Automatic annotation (TrEMBL):
Gene Ontology molecular function, alphabetical: DNA-binding transcription factor activity; transcription cis-regulatory region binding
Residue spans binding DNA: 31-50
Superkingdom assignment: Bacteria
Alphabetized InterPro entries for the sequence: BetI_C (IPR039538), Homeodomain-like_sf (IPR009057), HTH-type_TetR-like_transc_reg (IPR050109), HTH_TetR (IPR001647), Tet_transcr_reg_TetR-rel_C_sf (IPR036271)
Residues covered by the HTH tetR-type domain: 8-68
Organism annotation: Streptomyces luteogriseus
UniProt name for this protein: AcrR family transcriptional regulator
Pfam (any one): TetR_C_6
Keywords assigned: DNA-binding, Repressor, Transcription, Transcription regulation
């Protein structure tokens, strides 16, 4: 194993540990010392791989996005429903993302620019999905660009509701119910 491979594996281990610590404590409550301890490093050793807490945060967010990445042009509404089901199987990651998103709305948060840019891309992607399904007008008359922020809001809002009360909110079923508003049929009810 080369030194570069060992370094990449250590970075991946640190990112996973950071994700866990942020899920437990939030970004502001997470310390580099806690992450370093979790992976058996000193804080100085961790700083060798990630020079700042902000650099580690961006690596965590990028890793989370890689897990959810779909090939360009392959995303469809039915695949979005599958993504919601997948997210329901990994509450710690959804919790971390949601906590960071909530914290990032403050002016000085280091993830604010990341989330702002991410949502520009997500809205554009959702508009493409809607355009591929419905053309330039959805059944209710909205353009894909006008409906895209609403679709994103449903996805994020369901995550928050599910995190707060997973026994009462079935995120995947609720999203499939939402899709019926677009004229999509839920085949799970028979």
């Amino acid at each position: 194993m080369t030194a570069r491979t060992r370094s990449e594996e250590r970075r991946a281990e640190i990112v996973r540990a950071a994700l866990e610590v942020i899920a437990e404590r939030g970004y502001r409550g997470a310390s580099l010392a806690a992450v370093a301890e979790r992976v058996g490093l000193t804080q100085q050793g961790l700083l060798h791989h990630f020079p700042t807490k902000e650099a580690l945060l961006v690596a965590v967010l990028q890793e989370r996005d890689r897990w959810d990445a779909m090939p360009a042009g392959r995303l469809r509404l039915d695949l979005l429903a599958s993504l919601v089901e997948y997210n329901a199987m990994r509450p710690a990651i959804v919790q971390t993302f949601s906590a960071l998103l909530g914290e990032s709305v403050t002016e000085e948060h280091p993830a604010r620019a990341y989330f702002t840019e991410r949502y520009v891309g997500v809205r554009a992607g959702m508009a493409e999905v809607l355009r591929a399904e419905y053309g330039d007008r959805l059944p209710g008359g909205l353009t894909p660009e006008r409906a895209a922020p609403l679709l994103v809001a449903i996805l994020d809002g369901l995550q928050y509701q599910w995190l707060l009360d997973p026994e009462s909110v079935d995120m995947a079923s609720a999203f499939r119910d939402f899709l019926t508003l677009f004229g999509e049929h839920d085949d799970t009810d028979g």
